[in-house]
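User: Good morning. I'm curious how alpha-D-glucopyranose would be positioned relative to this chain. Could you predict the structure with it bound?
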Amino acid sequence: MQKTTAQLLENPQLLQFESDKLLKRFSSSLKTLAKQSFPAFQLRLQQVLPKLLQLYLTLYGNQYDCYYQLEQLLKLLAKSSAQRPDYLKQQDLQQEQQPQHWHQSAQALGAACYVDLFADNFEGLANRIPYLQQTGINYLHLMPLFKAPVPNSDGGYAVSDYRDTMPELGSMPQLAALMQQLHQQGIKPVLDFVFNHTSDEHRWAKLAKAGQQEYRDYYFFLTEQERDQFAPCLREIFPEIRRGCFTQDADSKRWIWTTFNSFQWDLNYGNPQVFNAMAEEMLFLANQGAAVLRLDALAFVWKEAGTGCENLQKAHTVIQAFNAVARIAAPALQFKSEAIVHPDEVVKYIAPGECQLSYNPLLMALLWNSLATRKTRLLSESLRRRFEIDPHCSWVNYIRCHDDIGWTFDDDVARQLGINPDHHRQFLNQFYTGQFPGSFAKGVPFQQNPINGDCRVAGMLASLAGVEQAQSEGHTLHLQHALARINLLNSIILSIGGLPLLYMGDELGLLNDYSYQQDPVKKDDSRWVNRVKLDSQQLLEAQSKTSSSGRIYQQLQHLITTRASLPETGAGSTRILTCDNPHLFSYQRELAGKTLLCLVNFSEQPQYYQQLPAGHWVDQLSGQSYQSRVIQLSPYQVLWLRH
Ligand code: GLC
Ligand code: GLC
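Assistant: Good morning! Here's the predicted structure, ligand included:
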């Protein structure tokens, strides 16, 4: 007798039974499709299908064609297993035999770049591999490079074709060759999986516009009444560009869901065909060589009327289902979560069965906060509650990225510390846009919301940390402080636990590029101020002993090489400590009885640390030793102390 979805979901044994039944039924057709990959494929399918079935039924069990769609999905998994290149199959095998936590090594170091800004095109990027290696990078996120509308594509985050590239960068086969070359050179390539939306020039969107119902169902074409069931609860993401989250279709007058720009159409994951179609695109990217996919805007992928349509339970189910798909057809593939949301929600995406990696926006925002206030309580308190994650997963710790800085700390923690969260965010925006008296920062406001006053900040690391201002003043001490701030920030992302991620250009302290203000396409999106072009002259500066660029690069190198020699900075656990001195931040890394005590002075005044445990401590960065209980840290000094 056919079991109902509810019965299956309640009972793991029934699920197992059902999944065995499906396997038997489909076995011969899957065998034909998976070709010589079938034995390995079948084994994985046996292991993972009960889970996938559970997730699929949770999402689509109430659809009349649920099992038919599941069958289509299994077929495409089999097909894409057959297409997986041999070198990736080998990685799959290794991953299964001995799960590698490559992201937890003291040598693991990531970077992100736009191909055109960093190296013009794929060929240019291949030529820059030696520079990446010299810097110590072994994980490289190539920012969106897919075919996208011209001229405006939200920096590539409006994808018109997941299987084609922007022609000026090179072709998809060239990208695949580049990614294989990166693998061979020990660098893991990372691509975006922009799966919340496509551009309005995607084939599906064009067919939808042309009136084909099948493709209209890929998106949301809502009547005014339907739209109004959702609209009141939604957050506006780009309020300066466009109010609300919907765009009216000129022909049908229906309202298309567009969380971001009006040319970015949200996909409807309530439709199993959308899930299947995107699973196919995902596996295509995995088979081109992506070791990690960055799950763009993942918080938004599930919508339910009457909710904010962010971070819903079924968004997690969708991602877990994609993860199950990857375990079957591309096991070496890992996911990185891009959830720039409340810290309690950020951590929910992190799990071996969901996203193995996640940006750490809380650390990012609060590092900047502590530099502005010279105080570390909010940082320490927040991290004490939210730093620990599943031991198989890793934070991706970053200081800057291609986007804005949003002040996503927890209001409750702030209030407990006597900080008014709204006022404090206003202060931070003022501070980092250089409007607060005495500020060292030169950032640019991003997406000021006229209704609620919300705002975020854009800028390059060096400009936000004070280099730009110090240089224009010609102030030597201020410049020294700015370089020390950069060193401080780098030291933390390199030692606090997780994969550090550099944003290319920041390693050389490149400044804001204001030319976007003259570009009619970019002028309304101030994030372009921190998307700067690198030329070979600038790369040569890395070796200079006198320029700021050279000094920034070399102090970073010193941190990277020191870290590489300290295993406890890679694997191991983190303990955020309590400091008597409110300007100091301290944490401890522990691994197999070895301890690294990290002390950081967030102020430009000397500070005393009065809690050094007895014994003989050596700072791994300077070689200096410390034995007394009270020690002095110079302005912005960082100590990595080993017993
Ligand atoms: C992510 C990207 C951002 C983009 C948005 C919409 O947040 O980082 O650049 O605007 O998604 O795709
Ligand atoms: C919003 C989104 C985030 C994205 C950003 C783009 O904050 O939550 O995902 O990076 O907008 O600016």
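Residues 237, 297, 338, 340, 403-404, 406 surround alpha-D-glucopyranose (ligand 2) (CB under 6 Å). Residues 285 and 556 are 32 Å apart (CA to CA).
Let me know if you'd like a different ligand tried.
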